[in-house]
Amino acid sequence: MLIETKNLAHVYMPGTPFQVEALQGVSLEIERGEFVGIIGETGSGKSTFVQHLNGLLKPTSGEVLFDGHNIWTKANNMRKHRSRIALLFQFPEHQLFEETVFKDIAFGPRNLGLGGEELEKRVRYGLELMGLDFKLYKDRSPFNLSGGEKRRVAMAGILAMEPEVIILDEPTAGMDPSGRRQLLEQIKRLHSEQNLTVILVTHNMEDVSRLAGRLFVFSGGRLVLEGTPVDVFKSAETIKEIGLELPPLTELLQELKKSGKDISTDLFSVEDVGREILQLYREG
Ligand SMILES: Nc1ncnc2c1ncn2[C@@H]1O[C@H](COP(=O)(O)OP(=O)(O)O)[C@@H](O)[C@H]1O
Ligand SMILES: [Mg+2]
Prior knowledge:
This protein has two domains: 3-246, P-loop containing nucleotide triphosphate hydrolases (Rossmann fold), CATH 3.40.50; 247-284, no CATH class. The protein is 42% helix and 21% strand. It contains twelve helices and ten strands. Magnesium ion (MG) binds next to helix 1.
């Protein structure tokens, strides 16, 4: 197993009036090469959870294992760990700070001790994966880029470390639909072509159901559902109880099924659902 958490709990500001039990008893497993989604409403513990996976937060109790080893043992090199399992924060563009795109992307790999040609190679690699031309972008100031470009540069900086796992915390928050579609398409390609293990945190059920093989649903700091999107969406009641909505297409299919129509409910693309409904319509 690549990533495993055992009974993970996290308390913020313990022993103060502001104490928050942000995670409780979270045990889950993620295999190498998987694309998983972490969903839950705001405050359910998603960001707290993923920050444990790359060692930014230390468990109050419980364990985080990577490749079978507890990441908090002395023997573990935490800096190296954070480059193997890289985390892109929510609104990552707030963390761009260098005067050129090149320097910003080079920051992570430079911290890993790389320089010279190898460093440039890494910067090129990151930019290319994000569909940004090296020559056109390397000398530009990150501050003069569009919102979408900034986010792609931030992501290029993560990829330049050649991680094995990327964790993306609400990567499309605040983006317009076309920018969102583009970024998700790129994330999908990173998973299929670069063999990356991807952990996508989102409250957008539609995006994640089309991309992720498995979902983990959080509520109130606990893991309440897990499984393939099809399996998870079968628990429509629970999903609604914890403040989430099914993807509209799934809801439509489930309603049609409930009304007695012979229809499949495990379709996620507009094309597939369209075809299914067209067939139903033709059959009368
Ligand atoms: N740095 C922090 N200090 C204190 N409480 C926090 C901190 N970060 C998050 N919390 C609290 O922990 C809970 C889980 O938050 P978070 O992990 O950010 O959830 P999500 O990412 O699902 O919105 C919330 O109640 C939140 O207010
Ligand atoms: Mg969050």
